[in-house]
Amino acid sequence: MPKPEQYRCIRAWGEHMGSMKYYIVSEQEDAAEMNAPLDAIYKRDGVWHRAIDIKRTDLRESILAAASNPGVN
Fold first, then answer.
1. Euclidean distance between CA atoms 30 and 60, whole angstroms
2. Which end of the chain is less congested by CB atoms within 10 angstroms, N or C?
């Protein structure tokens, strides 16, 4: 099972959206418990949405680039 800190796309998305750190950490913990895809960005109505589903190419690339930095959680 993945660890919460492995959900770096959730962190990147949360920071992009201006979410509070506690909320981002909570989402990462939920994702790990639910074994969500590692590129999950948020959950709505019980469904994990993924970075690859972002339609805007520039935003998708920005999120994936930010998530590729493992030194930040």
1. 22
2. N
Rounded Cα distance between 50 and 36, Å, is 9
pTM, entire model = 0.91
Q: How many domains does the chain have?
A: 1
Place of tokens 């930010």: 66
Interval 37-64: pLDDT, tens = 999 999 999 999 999 999 999 999 999 9
Amino acid at 45: D
Q: How many CB atoms lie within 10 A of CB 40?
A: 24
Measured distance CA(44)–CA(65) in Å, rounded? 23
Whether residue 72 is contained in a domain is answered as: no
Sign of the torsion formed by the C-alpha atoms of 20, 57, 34 and 68: negative
